[in-house]
Each structure stands twice: as structure tokens, then as C-alpha cells.
Write a structure and sequence with these properties.
The protein is an alpha/beta fold. Helices cover 38% and strands 18% of the residues.
């Protein structure tokens, strides 16, 4: 590996945000999942959660094509669950707050959220949004301010807008520079993993269901 490439790896890893994530519930279009992954990589997110509770969407493996993930599959972990409770148990191990995109009387504006604290943002599927059962497990709802005639955004666009608000807030607090949460040990471990994946020819298109979910 060229020295410049290695330095890029180190710079990217130092900016990773171990306390920011995305949860996707029953997203049908895997191209949308791929687009979300690209945005996550660009703002330093290391892992996302894909929750498929609908029987028609459940498989032993989630398959993401190489084109869909555009190479980000090697740099963004995908935690795939079919069990809602087990998924949220895993989420709560790292993220203090889970906010869902859902319009109701108590929903806050995206810009009112504290996205510097450990947070996971949850997005529902393209047709019906977030399910009531999943909403009950969240800490609150938020909306993206809009002034157009059609008050809706594609899920990948909504995710990108939301994550760049998180990026703005965190960047102002130095979360990508002097106040990063990536310890030296965490950086070394992630560098070892990235170098291993960089050297392999595997596409990593198959994402196994989380072992704790599968064992249930």
C-alpha cells in the first residue's frame, strides 16, 4: 500500500464517530440502503442497523450488490436483525438516544435535537414509515423542516439531510478533531480491520443476520 493511502486510512479512522448511527426499519429498496451507507461513511459513521421485521423482507443473509453499496460495505458495518427487541438491545449498548423520523404532535424539528450526544437516527420504510411498535421503543420523533408543496423526502435524502445536521453540530464541538472519541486502541483495531478488508477481493455483499438475533 502506498504511504498516501495508508495516511488516508488513518485520517478517516481518526474521524469515525463511534456514538452516532442510523437504524433502517423494513426498507424495501436495497439501493436506498446503499445510498444511506455512502452518506454514513462520508460523515464518519462506522456501523448501521438494518431491522427487517416484515416476513417478506427476512432472509438468513441481507444481500447488497457491489454497485448498490459503491464500495462502502468494507468501511461501514451493517448489523442485520429481524427481531425488534434484540435489535434495540444492541442499539442501547452504545447509543443513549434513538430518534425516529415521524410526524406527530410531539415531533421536534431536526435542528432542535442534540446530535452531539450518543444518538441513533431511525428511518422507516418507503411506504408506511416507522411502525408503531418501533416508535414505542424510541425516545422521540423528529421532522425535517420543509416549505414545499410535497412534504416528504426520499429515505436516502432524508437520511443525508439529517446526518449532515449531525455532522455540523459535531464538527462545531471538535468531534472530528481534538475531541474525537476514537481512542488509540480503537483506531489501531479499526486500521487492522480496514487493511485486511482492503487486501481481500471479497465483495462483502452478503450480510449475515446478527448472531444474537439468529440464535433467538
Amino acid at each position: 500500500m502506498r504511504p498516501e493511502r495508508l495516511e488516508k486510512f488513518k485520517k478517516v479512522i481518526a474521524s469515525r464517530q463511534p456514538d452516532l448511527s442510523v437504524v433502517l426499519e423494513n426498507v424495501h429498496d436495497q439501493h436506498n440502503i446503499g445510498a444511506v451507507m455512502r452518506t454514513c461513511d462520508s460523515v464518519g459513521i462506522y456501523e448501521i442497523f438494518v431491522l427487517q421485521t416484515h416476513p417478506d423482507l427476512q432472509f438468513s443473509n441481507l444481500t447488497l450488490g457491489k454497485r448498490t453499496s459503491a464500495g462502502t460495505r468494507k468501511w461501514v458495518e451493517v448489523r442485520y436483525f429481524t427481531d425488534r427487541v434484540k435489535c434495540f438491545k444492541a442499539i442501547r449498548e452504545k447509543y443513549h438516544h434513538v430518534f425516529a423520523t415521524h410526524l406527530d404532535a410531539k415531533a421536534k424539528s431536526l435542528h432542535e435535537l442534540d446530535l452531539v450526544s450518543p444518538t441513533a437516527l431511525l428511518f422507516g420504510n418507503e411506504h408506511v414509515g416507522v411502525s408503531e411498535k418501533t416508535l414505542a421503543l424510541c425516545d422521540g420523533n423528529f421532522i425535517i423542516p420543509q416549505v414545499g408543496m410535497v412534504q416528504s423526502l426520499n429515505i436516502s435524502v432524508a437520511c443525508a439531510v439529517s446526518l449532515y445536521e449531525a455532522f455540523r453540530q459535531r464538527n462545531e464541538k471538535g468531534k472530528y478533531t481534538e475531541n474525537t472519541l476514537m481512542t488509540r486502541e480503537m483506531q489501531d483495531d479499526l486500521l487492522e480491520l480496514y487493511l485486511e478488508r482492503h487486501d481481500t477481493k471479497a465483495t462483502m455483499k452478503f450480510i449475515p443476520r446478527d448472531i444474537r438475533d439468529a440464535e433467538g
